[in-house]
Amino acid sequence: MKILSVRQPWAHLIIHGGKDIENRKWKTNYRGDVLIHASKAYSSSANLPNLPDGMRNSFQFGGVIGVAELVDCVSASKSKWFEGPFGFVLRNPRPIPFIEWPGALGLRDVPPELVRRRIGEDRLSVTALSMERMHGVRALPEAADR
Fold first, then answer.
1. Which stretch of DSSP H or E encloses residue 132?
2. Cβ neighbours of 126 (radius 10 Å)
3. What is the CATH number of domain 2-110?
4. Which H or E run contains 8?
5. Closest CA to 19 of 73, 76, 101, 87
6. Higher model confidence: residue 127 or residue 39?
7. Which of 58, 65, 106, 135 has CA 20 to 30 A from 34's CA?
8. Would you call 133 helix, strand, or coil by DSSP?
9. What is the DSSP letter of 79?
């Protein structure tokens, strides 16, 4: 599993607003679940006059806010969100409880420390189990531990 830092309001719109493309200057061959990290910065290029005030007030910064499936990387798309030169095609966005975490550039592996923060919380059970397979970190407690 990977993690991708995205500036607000784009991160919020991926998870809650139907944004199905994340634009990048580089391409990727990765396919699979991606944690969406909301960076600490607001995008200076975000010109969204129709964004409801309530949505603006709900943005979270500096942590993981959800997970989506990266299903393709394209150089053209009919999506209203595509600007290019490359677009990460995202499906099945799911919000998760906010996890404060530092951001970084690029599409990177989810650190085992981030998984450890989720111990005892099964809200990310599918993600946690996939991390367990990748990193050998027991991300969910055994039934006897609960």
1. helix 125-135
2. 12
3. 2.30.130.30
4. strand 2-8
5. 87
6. 39
7. 58
8. helix
9. S
Q: What residue has token string 């964004």?
A: 51
Residue listed under structure tokens 């010109």: 47
Provide the token pair at 98: 């906010």
Helices (H) and strands (E) in the chain, counts: 4, 6
Domains of the chain by residue range: 2-110, 111-146
Mean pLDDT of 5-21: 93
State which amino acid sits at residue 110.
V
The rounded distance, in Å, linking the Cα atoms of 65 and 140 is: 19
* β-sheet bridge partners, residue 34: 2, 68
Contacts of residue 145, defined as CB under 8 A and 6 or more positions apart, other chains included, come to none
Average pLDDT in the 19-26 region? 96
